[in-house]
Write a structure and sequence with these properties.
By secondary structure, the protein is an alpha+beta fold. The chain contains 17 helices and 20 strands. Strands 1, 8, 9, 10, 11, 12, 13, 14, 15, 16, 17 and 18 form a twelve-stranded mixed sheet that branches. It starts with a helix and ends with a strand.
């Protein structure tokens, strides 16, 4: 079985563009622009790992293809609410939230004509763990599955419920057991799904093409006949391509180019808040930042609102807790109260607190990846310098950053900036980023917390009742906001630009669901 480290690393990778490490595609994308309705060219913002087997794939950009070739047992609607897809409806829940019985629709077919059965769904749930894939921790709360008949599956968890099960785990992507296990390597690069598109062509590190499956089992019928995905890691290159009509749509609009593209004739912009959490964490293990008054002083020393307005207003939104706003729409935690608890920009108070609680020569080391987080680190350093302290900003490549921030050593850092993409459940943020078991794995603040802080996080994930979990989580979130082991910064938006002949395109909060080409709420076409 794979440790939680892999699961948490995976979610962090999705939050950090720099962490998806496939070779960049240089030069012009080419293609599109014809509006002929035949091939829709989509430019991705990061290169793919070229793994198209949902059991093993763990990068967002391969999954953007996977989600059009496969269907899930449940799928997200236009937000972060799950709705039945291959399932007939909501599961029957028994045994105090540890047993789920799923009914499977009859007549759902894979692209090879085989009908989906409960055995295929069972395999989709269990294969990540049995094969020790990097996705194993997303399913290792499942103790056993029982195929009741071809269209009914029983899934039993361990002794305790798993809170996020109904909000995300049920959205398992369904694969054909017989075809996949016959030749897993072949399946990975030529997969067979049940989705509205089937795999057509793969030129590794160049492009992947999918084409409309005319015998799609659902009532939905895609307008697009063929879709080509190509990656262009370079921001300027993507912007140039959409402006020159070398692609039909692109993802990842740079903040500084938003106004340019917004004023460009023939270009439309699309945006959706994502479940991402960008933050500045403090070393609570060693050094001056173990003192919450020092952390509070640093938070007083600069204005996040001013930073966002001047550097990222087009593609981010401010955050006031570790729960992204789009997730908070589901849970309704009191964000306005959290905002009032956070330190406001007050350089005089910052200087007073540092004079009282920090060493005279306090010059904290801030480690950060490049990009907007490096810009924020420099802003903090500038504002600290203005009140007589300063900071040493070290911009590190992602691999070095990961090796450094998990040490907990004051010699390595006092603050670090990172980002995280989770999902519609608070557990994805609170357990992963704050529970003591995850120190040195995906967190370097080493926050001890009040009595019961860490126990409450575990209690919340082991409850199946959402109201009960709200009451458990709310004090945990409030403590984080008040004690500041991390300072919430902003949530990033999923953004896309398209040519104006592209109809009905919209952005989805979950990056792997972009572009949503055929759903109950949209059907993209080129006129």
């Amino acid at each position: 079985m794979v440790s939680n480290q892999i699961q948490l690393q995976r979610r962090r990778l999705l939050a950090s563009g720099a962490a998806v490490t496939a070779a960049a595609i240089a030069g012009c994308i080419g293609g599109g622009g014809s509006g002929d309705g035949e091939t829709f060219h989509f430019t991705q913002e990061q290169s793919r790992e070229e793994n198209f087997d949902p059991v093993i794939s763990n990068d967002a950009y391969s999954f953007q293809v996977i989600n059009l070739v496969f269907d899930g047992l449940y799928e997200f609607d236009e937000g972060l609410e799950l709705q039945p897809k291959i399932a007939t409806g909501e599961p029957t829940v028994e045994r105090d939230g540890t047993r789920y019985i799923f009914e499977i629709q009859e007549g759902v077919e894979f692209h090879n004509g085989d009908e989906v059965t409960a055995s295929d769904v069972a395999h989709s749930f269990t294969a990540p763990v049995e094969e020790e894939t990097e996705n194993a921790p997303e399913y290792d709360m499942i103790e056993s599955t029982e195929v009741v008949d071809d269209y009914q599956l029983q899934v039993d968890l361990g002794e305790d419920p798993y809170g996020p099960f109904e909000l995300q785990t049920m959205a398992v992507t369904v694969v054909p057991e017989a075809v996949r296990t016959e030749d897993r390597d072949a399946f990975n690069t030529d997969p067979v799904g049940t989705g509205p598109f089937e795999f057509a062509d793969l030129q590794e590190n160049e492009y992947v093409e999918i084409e409309r499956w005319d015998d799609y089992w659902d009532d939905l019928e895609p307008n697009l006949e063929r879709v080509r995905f190509e990656a262009h890691d370079d921001e300027a290159g993507r912007v140039s391509d959409i402006r020159a009509e070398n692609t039909d749509a692109m993802a990842g609009i740079p903040n500084d180019d938003w106004d340019v593209l917004e004023g460009e004739d023939g270009v439309n912009l699309h945006s959706a808040e994502s479940p991402s959490f960008m933050y500045m964490a403090f070393n609570c293990n060693e050094g001056p930042t173990t003192n919450p008054e020092v952390r509070r002083a640093i938070a007083h020393s600069f204005s996040l609102d001013d930073f966002i307005e001047s550097n990222a207003a087009n593609v981010t939104s401010p955050m006031y807790s570790p729960i992204p706003p789009v997730v908070n729409e589901v849970w309704e935690f009191p964000e306005e109260e959290y905002q009032e608890l956070l330190p406001e920009y007050d350089p005089d108070e910052a200087q007073s607190l540092l004079d009282e609680h920090a060493p005279d020569d306090f010059t904290p080391t801030i480690i950060t990846p490049e990009g907007i987080r490096a810009q924020l680190a420099e802003r903090v350093a500038t504002r600290l310098d203005e009140i007589g302290y300063g900071a040493d900003v070290q911009v590190l490549d992602f691999a070095t950053l990961v090796d450094t921030y998990t040490t907990g050593s004051a010699d390595d850092y006092q603050m670090y900036l990172l980002g995280w993409t989770g999902g519609p459940d608070p557990d994805f943020y609170l357990y992963s980023l704050f529970h003591e078991s995850q120190a040195e794995i995906n967190q370097g603040h080493f926050y001890e917390g009040s009595d019961g802080f860490h126990d409450a996080i575990v209690e919340g994930r082991n409850s199946a009742d959402q109201e009960e979990r709200y009451d458990i989580y709310e004090p945990v979130i409030r403590e984080i906001v008040e004690q500041l082991p991390v300072l919430p910064a902003f949530t990033e938006d999923n953004t896309m630009a398209s040519r104006d002949y592209v109809e009905d395109l919209q952005a989805h909060p979950e990056v792997t669901n972009n572009p949503p080409l055929i759903t109950d709420y949209t059907n993209v076409s080129m006129e």
